[in-house]
Each structure stands twice: as C-alpha cells, then as structure tokens.
C-alpha cells in the first residue's frame, strides 16, 4: 500500500482524510475509518520486474516470470500454494508436490540451471546458454535415458560454443563442469553428434566452421601479450591455414604463440602457454616443428 500526495473526502468521516491505495486490490481506503472510497481502480504506477520483496510479503509484481519456449507450457504453469495447516490445505500441498514431481518440465528446468552455472563460470553469453538448452531438450526427446547428465550438459555447452563460433577447449569445459571426466565428456559429445547429426550440420553450415584464428585473441589475452605480438600471431596463424597444417586449431595457435614469443622480447615459458591454451607441452613442440618445416 502507499499514500497519495492529496487527501480525499470521506463520506463517513464527513471531511477530507489521508487515504491509502491498495495496489493489489485496486482499492482507495480511508486511513481513519477504513471505508473503501473507490474499488478496483487502475494502478498507473510502473510495473516491477519479477523479484520478490525479501523483507516482507508485499510483492509488487503483477506479472509472472519470462516465458521459456523450450518448456511445454512456456514456464507459466500454476503452482499450488503452500499449506497453511488445515487438512484441506495439506491435501492441496501434496497434490502440488506430485504435480511438480511428475512434470517433464521439472527435469528441464534443473538441467537448464546447471548449464547456466557452467556457462557463467566460463563467462559465456545468454545466446550460448539458450543454444545449449535447445540441444539438451532435443537430445532428451530422442534418447530414452541420459546416463551421465553432467557430462551431457557440458557436451551441449561445448557444442553450442562451437556453433556460435565462440569455441572453448575441452580442458576449459572440464574445469567448468566440476567432476566430469574427459572420457565421459568425449562420449557425450559423440552421442550428441550421433543423435542430432543432421540438426548440428545445419547449424554449423549457417555459422561456418571453427578456425584457429577464433582462439588467438583469447589465448593471447590469457598470456598478457601486447597488441603487436598478438598481430604477429594472427598473421602466422592465417599463414598456417594456407599451408594446410594438419592439427587441431588450439594446437596450432599454441604452437604459433610459442614460436613468436621465443623470437621476441616477450618470451613466455612453454609451461605458461600450455596452461593458457590447454594444449600439452609436447604437442606444442611437435606442431611448432611441423609449422617450421612448411614455412
């Protein structure tokens, strides 16, 4: 409730009194005698976002949360209220728990929440979260039972990053998905590619394939390299694409960074490069030799 700036005439008090406006009911009430002076009036105050007032039960929200098109009812299902203590209320509470437990959307909401946590750890934007959510929902519709959910969710996020051309390495994904083994993540990625092959191909074709150049700025930033060094790394990585170096993009970038920094004033230990890129030291040396042989 709130107090308006001006008083109003109360027919019971026979004078002007301070009135209270009840936003939820739309009633204007005399603060002295409690008479409803105006009922169901339109509240012209600004709408609030969907955040409840933690300090009291007075929640100014008049609308529900945002619609989620991936849920069967858009996330707008009715939830039965908490029991107030009577037997009737207890029955309704039990029905509410059963309703939520049996809902397919409940599993999706939980899965989407885990994807969001992993994405936040990696600093990923909402478009990638949404893409990963979509992949998981499509997979759940095709597969009867998902054995390792955490690995599958991480795999969905990994593939979503590739589709949105903001790739992340397997090592980065394992760091974000606490407790998931590399073997399990690899198997989950293979499962998704097998089950959603046609869908993934269409998405990849519309956005292009991942190139080594997509990793340059992030890896160089992780190592704190100056702009001139970054530019040199980019140029050599582009040259490697012309030379058709047969290695994964992350290994090529790591090897190029190693080669450039060893020949400049901004030397970086191979151990630091391996940590920043997620590529093994032996792999970096091997790919660097391969590049030097073709230059």
UniProtKB/TrEMBL annotation:
<keyword id="KW-0804">Transcription</keyword>
<keyword id="KW-0863">Zinc-finger</keyword>
<comment type="similarity">
    <text>Belongs to the TFIIB family.</text>
</comment>
<dbReference type="GO" id="GO:0097550">
    <property type="term" value="C:transcription preinitiation complex"/>
</dbReference>
<keyword id="KW-0479">Metal-binding</keyword>
<dbReference type="InterPro" id="IPR036915">
    <property type="entry name" value="Cyclin-like_sf"/>
</dbReference>
<dbReference type="InterPro" id="IPR000812">
    <property type="entry name" value="TFIIB"/>
</dbReference>
<dbReference type="GO" id="GO:0005634">
    <property type="term" value="C:nucleus"/>
</dbReference>
<dbReference type="InterPro" id="IPR013150">
    <property type="entry name" value="TFIIB_cyclin"/>
</dbReference>
<dbReference type="GO" id="GO:0017025">
    <property type="term" value="F:TBP-class protein binding"/>
</dbReference>
<dbReference type="Pfam" id="PF08271">
    <property type="entry name" value="Zn_Ribbon_TF"/>
</dbReference>
<protein>
    <submittedName>
        <fullName>Transcription initiation factor IIB-2</fullName>
    </submittedName>
</protein>
<keyword id="KW-0805">Transcription regulation</keyword>
<feature type="domain" description="TFIIB-type">
    <location>
        <begin position="6"/>
        <end position="38"/>
    </location>
</feature>
<dbReference type="Pfam" id="PF00382">
    <property type="entry name" value="TFIIB"/>
</dbReference>
<keyword id="KW-0862">Zinc</keyword>
<dbReference type="InterPro" id="IPR013763">
    <property type="entry name" value="Cyclin-like_dom"/>
</dbReference>
<dbReference type="GO" id="GO:0008270">
    <property type="term" value="F:zinc ion binding"/>
</dbReference>
<dbReference type="InterPro" id="IPR013137">
    <property type="entry name" value="Znf_TFIIB"/>
</dbReference>
<dbReference type="GO" id="GO:0070897">
    <property type="term" value="P:transcription preinitiation complex assembly"/>
</dbReference>
């Amino acid at each position: 409730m709130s107090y308006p700036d001006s008083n109003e005439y109360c027919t019971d008090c026979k004078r002007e009194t301070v009135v209270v406006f009840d936003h939820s009911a739309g009633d204007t009430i005399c603060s002295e005698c409690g008479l409803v002076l105006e009922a169901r009036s339109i509240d012209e105050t600004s709408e609030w976002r969907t955040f409840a007032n933690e300090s009291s039960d007075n929640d100014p929200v008049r609308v529900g949360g945002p619609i989620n098109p991936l849920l069967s009812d858009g996330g707008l299902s009715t939830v039965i209220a908490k029991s107030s203590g009577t037997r009737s209320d207890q029955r309704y509470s039990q029905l509410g728990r059963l309703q939520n437990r049996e809902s397919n959307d409940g599993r999706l909401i939980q899965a989407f929440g885990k994807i969001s946590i992993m994405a936040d750890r990696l600093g990923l934007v909402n478009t990638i979260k949404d893409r990963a959510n979509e992949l998981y929902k499509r997979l759940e519709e095709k597969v009867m039972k998902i054995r390792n959910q955490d690995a599958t969710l991480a795999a969905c996020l990994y593939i979503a990053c590739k589709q949105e051309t903001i790739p992340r390495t397997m090592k980065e994904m394992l760091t974000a998905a606490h407790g998931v083994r590399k073997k399990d993540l690899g198997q989950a990625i293979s499962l998704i590619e097998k089950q959603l092959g046609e869908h993934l191909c269409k998405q990849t074709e519309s956005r292009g394939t991942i190139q080594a150049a997509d990793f340059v700025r992030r890896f160089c930033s992780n190592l704190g390299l100056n702009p001139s060094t970054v530019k040199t790394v980019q140029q050599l990585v582009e040259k490697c694409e012309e030379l058709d170096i047969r290695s994964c993009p992350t290994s090529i970038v790591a090897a190029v960074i190693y080669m450039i920094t060893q020949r400049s004033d901004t030397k970086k230990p191979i151990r630091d490069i391996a940590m920043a890129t997620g590529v093994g030291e032996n792999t970096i040396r091997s790919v660097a030799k391969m590049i030097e042989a073709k230059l």
